[in-house]
Design brief:
heterodimer; A: 575 residues; alpha/beta; Rossmann fold; 2 domains; 6-stranded mixed sheet; 4-stranded antiparallel sheet; 12 strands; B: 605 residues; ABC transporter transmembrane region fold; elongated
Amino acid sequence: MDNKKRLKYYLFKEKGKITLGVLLCLLYVVCQISQPFLLGRALDAVAINDQNIYLTYLIICLVLTIVGAIFYYFFEITIGYVSQNIIRDMRKDIYLKMNSVSIKEFDTRTHGDLLQLEIRDIENVANGIFAVFKTLFQGIFTIILTIVMMLVANWILALGVIILSPLSVIVSYFVSSFNHRHFKKQAELQSQINSISLEAIGNLELLQSLNYEEESLNKFKEVDKKLKKEGRVAQFSASWVNPSTRLVNNTIYVIIGVAGIIMLAFDMKLAAIFAVMTIGRLSSFLSYTTQYTRPFNDISNVVSEYEVAKSSFERVNNFLNMDNDIDEGKEEINNIDSIKLENVYFSYNPKYPLIENFSLDIKKGNKVAIVGPTGAGKTTLINIIMRFYEPNDGDIKINNISFKDIKKSSLRKSVGMVLQDTWIFHGTILDNVKYTKIDATKEEVIEACKKAHADGFINALPNGYDTYVDGKEGLSEGQKQMIAIARVMLRNPNLVILDEATSNIDTRSEMLITKAFDSMMKEKTSIVIAHRLSTIKSADTIIVMKDGHIIETGNHNDLMKAKGFYYKLYSSQFE
Amino acid sequence: MINRVEDSYKHNIISLVFGPMIKLIEAVFDLLIPLFMKAIIDLNRYEDPSAIPNSISSALAKFIRLFGIWVPDNQNLSDALIGGAIILVMSILGFCITMVAQYVAARTAVNVGSELRTSLFEKILSLSKKDREKYGNARLQTTLNNDVYQVERGVLIFVRLIARAPFVVLGSIIFCFILDWRIGLAFACIVPLLLISLSFILRRSSKNYKNIQKDLDDISNKASDTIDGARVVRAFNAQQYENDKFDTSNEVYQKESLKVQKNNALINPIIFEITSLVTVIIFFFMLPSLFNSDDSYKVVLTSTLIAAMAYLAQIFFATVQLSTVLLDLTKARVSRGRINEIYAIENSVISPTNPTQIVIKEDLLKFDNVCFTYDKNEQNNVLKDISFLIKKGETLGIIGGTGSGKSTIISLIERFMDPTKGDIYYGNANLKDVDLKELRSRVGLVNQKSSLFNGTIRHNFLMANPNATEEDMMAVLKEAEAYDFVYAQKENLDREIKEGGTNVSGGQRQRLCIARALIKKPELLILDDSTSALDLLTDKKIRNRLKQNKEMSKVIVSQRISSIMDSDYIIVIDKGCIVGKGRHDDLLKTCPIYEEIYRTQTNKE
């Protein structure tokens, strides 16, 4: 969908409220703008000594004041609803997209980038929508109606105001574009300085150990110097808005006032050309001119907000247009009996082939271990089996059904996976473990944590299982891994994939966890990637990978006898 | 030196006092404009300025006449032109004066902001791990960015508006009193009315803003979780569950936002209502006098009303400004408190003023009954009675389970924290008497997190040793088994490291970190579990290379027994205590925990 279409889609959903908002806005502006006119007429009634007319105008004015305020209130509420509804929908759509976009596309985005999309960009769009509706409509209506009212009061003076209008437009345009430019520069420097401090604070110990504090401070000061310079200009230019508005207003006020007074003196002659001037009309004119510049300022401020919103919206739309995970498979499988990789080819980048002509047969009940140096393609293999990535060529057969025919959700239903980078979300430990089985009882969770050797440290936490945790602070890497393992223990799947799942757990606990896994996985299949060979030794089949190929297969004893790469790897441990 | 936000205010005291004053001159001009307009209108009716039945208008009319006659034979036209010229000149003068004040405001605010930002950053850089414990890194970051910005904004608003806004409001009311007491009275009533209702609404909103921020944090956390866990969410088919969870947060956020918006929606209508209403009321008040006076006086009253409406517009703008000023200043005050909290943290680790010169004969590092605890009551010891000695050129191995206190020992060696009890000696000197920079230049640390800094690989090396040559870098890369993958790409040393090194694999990152520590040519190298992502073969190769460097002492912390078994000396840590020390062969016999770890790792059952 292109940007326009997407925007239309969101706006169309709210079309009722938008129409209502525009209508309410128009009504309010009518009430507001008619006031100086009515009061001017009332003043003219004084000149002809007619109290009735005077009172009539005042009462109309009073009624319009009250009605106008009500219109105004409901107008603001309506656009509040419009912008908040659109935000909600867009936020939800982005979130849904995050969970449905293909991993391949997802991996091209950074964490910060995506988070900004969901938080900042949406706020920008919201502010843009709110500002455009509120200011643009109100401003345009105000300008048009003011001009109409002035024309009715005295067309010569009105023409004068119209001729002076460009003054307001030019001044507010210059001020706001100048502003915008400098604020943009300021924001860039601000984010530069933020990233310096963010990096420094996050790695403070390392920085201190490198004696780099002074250098870091100097770098910070260097950017701060630029920021100071730019900030001074930006803040200064921003403060032009009010004074220059006042100057323009005062100028128009004087010119119209003086011209009006002069016209008062020539009253009779002007009547001949239908440009009657009275003191009441002069009063309306002067009231109009004190407010005349404001909508121009408001609108030109909106222009910059609109620009920001537009670029944010484009980013949102780009993300929403990314390819979804395609799940063309129809077959449902209930458990996994066998996995067969046949001549699989895969690479992330066509220039660097990674996995080539890879075949592997995993039978039910087997424990398969994959070892090999970093970059051998072990994790990639997991990515392919879990179908985060599609192989470029070859076939994967699960229970002798080709992978393309199997529903992804049905495949994943039977798998429990623990990855190298453990994932702990914001929530209690209980919630984190229960993730794989939402309806699990607390007893089941505790049972699983015991098996994962996590129960001990969890109980030592201030609130036990109800301790609130997140991925960044509070838990050590090893503890996080234990929780991730408990998740899989709770799920009790019939295929387990462990990718360096215990690398940060001390070896005693690791051994106990391995034992628990082995007893859980009896008769079931598991695939294990590990550097610690003690974890691997009990595997039925050990696959030694290097540069995307299998270079050795067999069980521990076979491979040791063969005295190949595995033998070297294993014996290096205790030389 | 800046130790409190107020110090920075003191540095800028002149601008902070005179800046607002300058604005008052412009405010006076602004207040005179409606009066001059009235005088011109009145002159239109009265030939003689003294005849104008309003003292202030009469005085201004006389002032206009001082400039003589510009248009011969037409007194009215001449008065109007002169009056108009006076107003124009005042406006332009006022504009120029304001610009001076605005510049002072911008300059002062930015000065304060910059002073606070740099001094606060300097303070943060000096904080030890223990010092930061209370507030946490996230708080330090927000204070540095957001709170400093709020204070900066507060200063800006202060100079620009703190004097002007109340002055304009007050001046308008006083002039209206002089013109006609009834109008003055009406205006005097609406100002408090406006202020009270505005501050009531804004206060309610700002309370809700806190809730909104919390709800937005919630959304942000959920999104952040989903971004990090994309694979796990899919692996467990939890997309629908996640979406539902998010929906709830999203709805809550929307509801809270609407609450604020509904509340804010009151502001403009109320202002509109109050100001319009007061105009109508004044017109009602004036009705008897308007209709019971002669024609000339009618004109005077009418011109008074015109001036009153101009003042009303000024009161209106100034009051709105005043209410936002108050809100901004409140925010700035809260932020000032938060900044001062950081300044007030007492540095627990301070480099001595008269450092002891380090002399190393045989002993390099000695722990003497060292205890450490985070809490004040000195319970829950993280480390208890740790004693050991590393001789020059020796390797110490430290092994122990997760959370046993191994990394704390490292922090103490680097003096990120000081022991609660006991002493640490580096060579002949107590660690507390050693210059911090001196100490840290002698020690090379590879920590568990193995983070790299953004920039190129070369930049990372230069951070550790600004004098390192390309040859040095190549040498340490070879030593850390990192040469091959670095030079496999044509950017080699100039390869960009992004987001703390997440664009290289875990194993590569660890090797680069080791190389970075080596380029310092340290006397003591500390490896804190820094080969966990390496395969055994590579790990072994690196260790063998390091072993050949006999000059350098090493502390190796690991969970892998193979990484430490050939150390000169090994200590086994369990729950903060040393439960075994000695060489590998001795420990196998004397330390059951060590023996068990060995057994589990070799699977010899």
